[in-house]
Design goal:
alpha/beta; 2 domains; five-stranded mixed beta sheet; 24% helix; 14% strand
């Protein structure tokens, strides 16, 4: 690396991002889909500026983590991939209770992550602490789980519509989405 590159704070030439987007495209083609995976990419971002401060806002938590399913095998930290733990409908549960949620139904790098820290994929405790500190107004009475179906149409037309209905029902001003 040249001294100019070092002065500018560049990383080492070998320090490149993992080409996961190309990997996923190749993976979908290898599965027999007729075209590579295409991410939803909007020309106009469908977000709205906050109408009030975070300290005055009700926050809804959306996760792709799954509730425990009896009889379908290991779903805890360090569990191998477990497709039987998948869920296919949006769910909601009380934000006031601590509970098990797992990510064994998802494909993630199990060599470098054990899923030991639930806060890394379900930050309910951090949000409750933010409420206690006055950083956010309150947490919605429920959190919401959304499935990781691979169909963008199902996700947009079914799951997102249901999430929006639930968030409106709970009068959430903001949604924090934690994909796993």
């Amino acid at each position: 690396m040249s001294s100019t590159e070092e002065t500018l704070g560049f990383t080492e030439p070998h320090d490149l991002p993992v080409p996961y987007m190309q990997r996923l495209r190749d993976y979908y083609l290898a599965l027999g889909y007729g075209n590579p995976y295409r991410w939803a990419q909007y020309a106009d971002v469908p977000f709205t500026p906050l109408q009030k401060s975070l300290a005055e806002s009700r926050v809804g938590l959306i996760t792709t983590a799954a509730p425990h399913k009896d009889g379908v095998g290991d779903q805890g930290p360090g569990a191998a991939y477990n497709a039987a733990a998948k869920f296919y409908q949006v769910y909601s549960e009380s934000s006031s209770e601590d509970r098990f949620l797992g990510i064994s139904h998802l494909g993630y790098d199990r060599k470098y992550s054990t899923a030991q820290d639930i806060n890394s994929y379900f930050p309910l405790t951090a949000l409750l602490n933010a409420v206690a500190q006055g950083r956010i107004g309150e947490l919605s009475p429920r959190f919401y789980g959304t499935p990781t179906n691979r169909s963008q149409v199902t996700t947009i037309e079914q799951d997102c519509a249901e999430l929006l209905r639930l968030l409106r029902e709970d009068q959430a001003d903001i949604a924090v989405i934690v994909p796993n």
